[in-house]
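Q: What would this chain look like folded?
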Amino acid sequence: MLAIDLGVVNRKAHVVSVREALAFTTILVILAFGFTALIWVAYDHHWLALGTHVDRIDGAINDGRLAAVKFITGYLIELSLSADNVFVMAMIFAHLRIPAQYQHRVLFWGILGALIMRGIMIVVGTQLIARYHWILYVFGLFLVYTAIRMMLTKDEAHLEADEVFIIRQLRRFFPVTGQFNGHHFTAMVEGRRMLTPLAVALVLVEAMDLVFALDSIPAAFAITADPFLVFTSNVFAILGLRSLYFALAGAIEKFRYLKTSLSVILGIVGMKMLLADVLKDVLGPNANLYLLGLVVGILVAGAVASVVVERRARR
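A: My prediction, written as structure tokens:
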């Protein structure tokens, strides 16, 4: 999908339209649900030894149905958290005045770097959970703390402070110019190779994704400790981030209850991690299915409330 995205659809720099972004997003969502069916079959038939190990989160061996539910739940949580990332990226591009036709290139390489970073974090997280089960409670407390912080604080001031710090550190080690060189990340200025604003934007996008990964990776581990399910749900969510940005960047501020919905979801996921044994006894083997329904319900409720309030405000 990345090869098709950069090598075929976007070989030339251009402004990505909302229609194009929505079409690409739709294709990725269809692929994600198609991959869910593949997971169901693979885990039922134990392809590549999938579905043969005990999941340390709920103590169950993932059959096809359970693995599919966990994948979709993780995918929806990661995708919803990515929507908040859209707002941050829009602020970065606005602050650095990145032309619309070059934003796609920054996002493409940013997503590629994010996949590598998250892969490393998931491998490390899996090993920590395998050796130290109590780390799950640390993750749970961290998610609850993040949910409360997200509910009570505004991101703008923190983002500006983070931007200034990262740019200052970048300038300490690399020469930076304010001139653009087309879609390139470097430029020759007076015989000296320098970073362009596109490179600065890429570094900021990668740094902010690392910050968001500190929330999203523990959230995925609240669903399952199966590294294949955690990584693939992250992959599909991250792949949709670029098209999601171009589809929502202009209207993200209208979703005024997005942050509220995300903080509630993070809080619930954190509590699920802290009370996993209790919930397993109370809700039984369908606990993950109930969580999936709850996540979908919260997202839908937040979107509907945002639309209703926005229409009333316009009136």
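Strands lie at 54-55, 60-61, 186-189, 192-195.
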